[in-house]
């Protein structure tokens, strides 16, 4: 019997979002389902958080099935689910527009 939860890893940990940022690169090759949760706070941070996948762990592109997360307001959170993940590497890309704040994000992956 395999464990249901395979990974549960922070990608951003209170990362400053006063500029564009890339998260750590996470191996998700053992997972078919992923869930990314983002939590932010600050002084009117505005930007967009993209979920990106890669086949080689070097060249990343936005996942075409995941709607980017709009970051706005002094605080907030969002949750996105990725069914049938087909890439072995994942990262998040935050594209800065304005404001300041911090962002924490975590990925949880399941093999069933």
Number of helices, counting only DSSP H or I runs of 4 residues or more: 0
Distance between the termini: 11 Å
Helix percent reads: under 10%
Radius of gyration: 14 Å
Using the 3D structure, state the CATH architecture. Answer: Sandwich
Bulk shape: globular
Element-level helix/strand string: EEEEEEEE
Low-confidence stretches: none
- Looking at the chains present, what oligomeric state does this protein adopt? single chain
Helix/strand-derived category reads: mainly beta
For the residues shown, what is the average pLDDT? Answer: 94
Largest sheet: 8 strands, antiparallel
Count of individual domains: 1
Number of strands: 8
CATH class: Mainly Beta
